[in-house]
Structures are given as structure tokens and as C-alpha cells.
Write a structure and sequence with these properties.
Number of domains: 1
Helix content: over 70%
Number of helices: 6
Order of helices and strands: HHHHHH
Strand content: under 5%
CATH topology: Ferritin
Number of strands: 0
Largest sheet: none
Oligomer: single chain
Radius of gyration: 17 Å
CATH superfamily: Ferritin, core subunit, four-helix bundle
Structural class: mainly alpha
Bound molecules: hydroxy diiron-OXO moiety
CATH architecture: Up-down Bundle
CATH class: Mainly Alpha
Length: about 170
């Protein structure tokens, strides 16, 4: 049986993951509106991945017999100054999510909830990857320039992002 503090914190994290999905969807809409369909696609895939992150906690809680509570998802911003600004916002958001995961790990340890600590370790690794992926895009956008040819090239590259797979996610890939 999971303790009440842990249940509350995980319910909050489900909400954070859904907000993440929402903010990336808002970024997808912004980028699509700028005719950057490839970047918009990348953000859509990211939004789907965040949905899977939420569902992984959802399923884990059900398995532990914990009561799930779904909270309202806040409205994300709708405008950014530039594509670079949007990806920088994504990077900051991932850093914020990493801090949330670290807090959950701390709580699982202090509550001696080894199973939750174990599943949270998957998120710890995932956050390293998530931050690295966005940071790489931010660096390239800065290098190639946030306008003209560089932007066009990045847009083409980001159009190739495959859909996140539930199987891969479940396997920790
Ligand atoms: Fe992109 O972060 Fe979820 O966990």
C-alpha cells in the first residue's frame, strides 16, 4: 500500500506530465503557424511522449492499488518570440521536470518506498535524454541561425522524428 504523501505527489506528477504534453502542443501550434511544419511535428511527438510519461505513472499507481486523482490542466502560453525562443522554453521546461522527478525520488527514499524509487529511476534516465535532445536543438539553432536557410534545414531535420512507441517506453528505451 502506497502512503498518502506519495500518492498525492504522484497524482501531482501525472498533472505535470499532462501540462508538459499541453505546452508542447501549444509550441506545435505556434511553430505550425510559422510554417515550420517539421518543428511542429517534433513538438507533436514530444506531446505524445509526455502523454506516455503520464500513463506510465497512472498504470503504476493502479498496480499499487493507489487512488488516482486527475486535476485540471493549466492553459499553456500561446506565443513565443521565435522558434529558438520556443525550444529554449522547452529546455527550461525539461529542467523544471527534472527537478520534479528528483523531488519525487527524494520523497520515495525518505518514505522508504523502494518500488516508487525504482520506477522513478526510469524517469531520472529519461530526463537526461530529454534535456540532451532539446539542448542539442537549441545549440544547432544558435549555430545555424534562427532565420532563413539554417531554419529551413532544422525544420527538415526535425520532421523525421518518429512517433514514440508505448513498447519502447514500457521497456525503458
Ligand atoms: Fe519531458 O518530461 Fe516527462 O517526465
Amino acid at each position: 500500500m502506497m502512503n498518502a504523501k506519495m500518492v498525492k505527489a504522484l497524482n501531482k506528477q501525472i498533472n505535470e506530465e499532462y501540462y508538459s504534453s499541453y505546452i508542447y502542443l501549444a509550441m506545435a501550434a505556434y511553430l505550425d503557424d510559422q510554417d515550420l511544419d517539421g518543428m511542429g511535428h517534433w513538438m507533436r511527438m514530444q506531446a505524445q511522449e509526455e502523454h506516455l510519461h503520464a500513463m506510465k505513472i497512472f498504470d503504476y499507481m493502479l498496480e499499487r492499488g493507489a487512488r488516482i486523482e486527475l486535476y485540471s490542466v493549466a492553459a499553456p502560453p500561446r506565443e513565443w518570440d521565435s522558434p529558438l525562443d520556443a525550444f529554449q522554453g522547452a529546455l527550461e521546461h525539461e529542467q523544471y521536470m527534472t527537478a520534479n522527478i528528483n523531488t519525487l525520488v527524494d520523497l520515495a527514499i525518505s518514505e522508504r518506498d523502494h518500488a516508487t524509487n525504482n520506477i522513478m529511476q526510469w524517469y531520472v534516465s529519461e530526463q537526461v535524454e530529454e534535456e540532451a535532445n532539446v539542448e542539442n536543438i537549441v545549440k544547432k539553432l544558435k549555430m545555424m541561425g534562427d532565420t532563413g536557410h539554417g531554419l529551413f534545414m532544422m525544420d527538415r531535420e526535425l520532421a523525421n522524428r518518429p512517433a514514440p512507441s508505448i513498447v519502447a517506453e514500457a521497456d525503458g528505451a
